[in-house]
Specification:
Blueprint: H1 9-22, H2 27-31, H3 46-49, H4 59-71, E1 75-80, E2 85-89, H5 93-105, H6 108-116, H7 121-142, H8 149-158, H9 165-182, H10 190-201, H11 206-209, E3 222-223, E4 229-231, H12 239-250, H13 265-279, H14 286-300, H15 312-315, H16 319-330, H17 337-375, H18 383-394, H19 402-409, H20 413-425, E5 429-434, E6 437-442, H21 445-453
Antiparallel strand pairs: 1-2, 3-4, 5-6
Helix pairs in contact: 1-4, 5-17, 7-8, 7-9, 7-18, 9-10, 9-14, 10-14, 12-13, 13-14, 13-17, 16-17, 18-20, 19-20
């Protein structure tokens, strides 16, 4: 993966001087291109812009006018690296839209409202609890874990011990996300960052990850698929101090209305994601920690729906674009806009997917409840049986185990087993042995309806 770095300030100034001396009549043509975004609203890097400008103009000179337009509107965020460089960003339409979407659909209040619209609230909670696993799985796959989502979900549901490094990574990421949720009320600190790393990587390959140990050498680098170095982190000297300063910045309430340096929590969460990836405090596992801290910050600021929204599932579909968003920022004077804008685009799609899951569930539940009532079956089911039948019909869970039902319905093991076996007796579910435990799954709907018509 290679990108074309933007021309230096000196080269741009020389080109501008040459234009004014030799072709002053073309100055106005370049001036018309003086905008932070292109005609389609895109915040292009030089790597992208060079292929999108008209052949009648010099891309490097166009870049001079674009950069000048951006400099007047960039907002400072935080300083990173050694020596420290101030990160800045431009508020694009995509960033504004993403902030609006998370405010409308992902806050604690929004999640409570979504649940309240569903009469059988527990069935929706069961459905979204299944989504909690998706970020851990997607993050593992993004880091190279060779497993399918179906196999990974089975591993987590069965709660068996992992047998391979890939399975250990999935369990580790799941533990890391759980840690982020459980510690959401704490302030960020160097210790919290280290503990987050330990929760996710300990026991995988300790001689590779060094759980919780901040690197004190400069022999860490990021290489591409052919072994070329694409990124070398800042010096390890002073790294702990930089992480402490980053933590202090994270703990400032920038989202308060009266703040002179207002930052939406989503923008700040994405900045923390970038900062950990950039500083690279650990020998390995930095990407996982960075994404977990993104979630931790949103949890801390009452965006609870992000427990069920998986950004890594979308990032892994375009890993090159994810990597380029880092590189574009690093090669353009730490302009964070590229990274924030890309992440906001991913967030918009992830929130939409979450909303569609909810709306589909609501629609399916209404239709299914009508069938249950008309068939007379509804009156014969207790509330736990209706929940499991509804979840099974939606196809979110292909089979149930007693332990899984016990956890999701917050009931005893015996109650969970009895609920499942009663559904088998009613000829709604089947049961079969899988390994050492029984697995329960719903019969085909046509079979259920046919059976009930013959009674």
């Amino acid at each position: 993966m290679k990108i074309t770095a933007p021309p230096s300030v000196r080269e741009r100034q020389q080109l501008l001087q040459k234009l004014l001396q030799e072709s002053p009549d073309k100055f106005e043509q370049y001036l018309e291109l003086s905008s932070p975004v292109d005609s389609k609203g895109r915040y292009l890097s030089f790597d992208e812009l060079q292929y999108r400008v008209d052949k009648s103009v010099d891309a490097k000179l166009v870049w001079q006018f674009v950069k000048r337009a951006r400099q007047n509107q960039l907002q400072p965020v935080v300083s990173l690296g050694s020596p420290p460089v101030e990160c800045q960003f431009f508020l694009t339409h995509t960033i504004q839209k993403a902030c609006s979407q998370v405010d409308r659909y992902t806050t604690n209040t929004a999640l409570e409202l979504m649940c309240s619209k569903i009469g059988e609230q527990k069935s929706f909670e069961y459905l979204i609890n299944d989504l909690i696993e998706d970020e851990a799985i997607g993050s593992s796959q993004l880091e190279g874990a060779a497993t399918t989502t179906r196999v990974a979900k089975k591993l987590l549901k069965q709660q068996r011990k992992p047998r391979t490094p890939d399975e250990k990574m999935i369990i580790g990421n799941f533990c890391m996300m759980k840690f982020a949720w459980e510690h959401r009320d704490e302030d960020l600190s160097l210790d919290l960052i280290k503990e987050l790393h330990i929760s996710g990587v300990q026991g995988i390959q300790d001689d590779k990850y060094y759980p919780g140990m901040i690197r004190d050498t400069d022999d860490v680098e990021i290489v591409n698929e052919i072994g070329d170095t694409v990124y070398t982190p800042p010096s390890s000297q002073g790294l702990k101090n930089r992480l402490e300063r980053l933590s202090e910045w994270a703990n400032i309430q920038h989202h308060e209305i009266d703040s002179n340096d207002f930052l939406h929590p989503l923008i700040k969460a994405i900045t923390l994601h970038f900062a950990i990836g950039y500083e690279h405090p650990f020998y390995d596992g930095n990407g996982r920690v960075a994404r977990s801290i993104f979630y931790w910050y949103l949890f801390k600021n009452k965006f609870a729906a992000f427990r069920y929204i998986a950004i890594s599932s979308l990032l892994k579909k375009a890993p090159v674009q994810y990597a380029k968003s880092y590189l574009y920022t690093e090669t353009d004077n730490m302009d964070l806009t590229y990274f924030i804008n890309y992440q906001c685009d991913v967030v918009i799609r992830a929130v939409k997917k979450f909303r569609l899951t909810y709306e589909k569930h609501l629609e399916n539940m209404d239709a299914f409840n009508q069938w249950l009532w008309e068939s007379g079956l509804y009156k014969q089911l207790n509330h736990r049986q209706r929940i499991l039948l509804q979840v099974a019909k939606n196809g979110v869970v292909s089979y149930f185990t007693t332990n899984e039902v016990k956890e999701n319905l917050s009931c005893s093991y015996n109650t969970a087993a009895r609920t499942l076996n009663e559904l088998v007796d009613l000829k709604l579910f089947r049961k079969e042995k899988r390994g050492r435990e029984w697995a329960f799954s719903m019969l085909n709907k046509k079979e259920i309806i046919r059976d009930w018509k013959t009674r």
